[in-house]
Amino acid sequence: MMRMWTGLLLIAFASAALAHKPSDSYLMLTTNSVEANVQGQWDIALRDLDLALDLDADRDGAITWGELRAREHDLYDYAFKHLTLTAQTQSCALRAGDLLADDHSDGAYAVLRFSASCAAAVRELGVDYRLLFDLDPSHRGLLRIDVDGASRSAVLSPDRPVQQFDLAQTARWNTFVQFVGDGMHHIWIGYDHMLFLISLLLPAVLVRRERAWQPAPSMRSALLGVLAVVTAFTVSHSITLTLAALDVIGLPSRLVESGFALSVLLAALNNIWPIVSRRAWVLAFCFGLVHGFGFASVLADLGLPRGALALALAGFNIGVELGQLTVVLAVVPLIYFLRRASFYRPGILVGGSSAIALVAGMWFVGRALGLGLG
């Protein structure tokens, strides 16, 4: 038992150390069908640039505008070494513009404006993106291209760092498929979303009778419980994901991130001291509303127009659901097989939920107070 708890604590602290919003940058390119140049704006999180360039000169934990301006040349040099634009396969020359700073939903970003001079009018635009992949394989570049007033979007990742765009075509299907993949990616590396879902799944193979957990009598009854929980979570976060991405409603980032941690904490504690046991789908629905705001921040920060946003939103949402489905298919058969074991309730349900609660408690305190603990 001591070894089990030691392992759970190690997992808890490792997860707390890794927990953060997935690393994204926002690359926006603008051109037209007759000119041989591209205007660009690249928003990169200061925390990511600090990881690569050590911007915090005085080691006070904050990057000032002065520290950022002092490294302007290094910023552009680093960025341009990890980005290549081509027109009809011929490289375009990148030239630095104004350096600015802006706030996104997850913190401060450096805004690198630049231009690219190409040999001919840009009909086929190639983007070779390698930023931060060597330091953080989970990093993604969210790309928006505006051509003659029309927008398209794409996701640049370590497995697809080089992409070609025929600017005469809309390529809606490719955009949709890429955001499906990005939705799945964000579920798999979104530790708070994963732990919340697992907290809801752990008791799904049990039933509460006479104030005690008992094994579910059949796979059918267990799956019905899982289906209710996952459906409620899906419906609720889809509501807020859509409303927030369309800028109908919004909440401060710290409140949303703290809400994630609180939802994980309460779901885990509910497994240890059950208050909501017969209608776990209610818990999933209520807290799913909060989780939808987090998914929306990725799309909202990209600034897509309504037409392109609707397509990206649909693909991203479907990707989130597919990502959740893979978690369900991986977890439920295993815990169903173990549900009658003597160690399942004390060791996995209570022990696992205690470890999750410990992680979530650290996240909540760190996020609510801005201590950087998750």
What does this 3D model show about the protein?
This protein is of the alpha+beta class and 374 residues long. It has 2 domains: 2-18 and 190-369; 24-172, no CATH class. Helices cover 53% and strands 22% of the residues. It contains 11 helices and 12 strands. The protein has helices at residues 2-18, 46-53, 65-70, 72-81, 172-189, 191-201, 219-245, 253-272, 280-302, 306-338, 344-369; strands at 24-31, 37-45, 83-87, 90-91, 93-104, 107-117, 124-129, 140-147, 150-156, 162-166, 206-209, 212-215. It has a 6-stranded mixed sheet with strand order 5-6-2-1-8-9, sandwiched between helices. Strands 4-3-7-10 form a 4-stranded antiparallel sheet. A two-stranded antiparallel ribbon has the order 11-12. α6 packs across α10 and α7 (219-245) packs antiparallel against α10. It is elongated, with a radius of gyration of 23 Å.
Secondary structure blueprint with pairings:
Elements: H1 2-18, E1 24-31, E2 37-45, H2 46-53, H3 65-70, H4 72-81, E3 83-87, E4 90-91, E5 93-104, E6 107-117, E7 124-129, E8 140-147, E9 150-156, E10 162-166, H5 172-189, H6 191-201, E11 206-209, E12 212-215, H7 219-245, H8 253-272, H9 280-302, H10 306-338, H11 344-369
Parallel strand pairs: 1-8
Antiparallel strand pairs: 1-2, 2-6, 3-4, 3-7, 5-6, 7-10, 8-9, 11-12
Helix pairs in contact: 1-11, 5-10, 6-8, 6-10, 7-9, 7-10, 8-9, 8-11
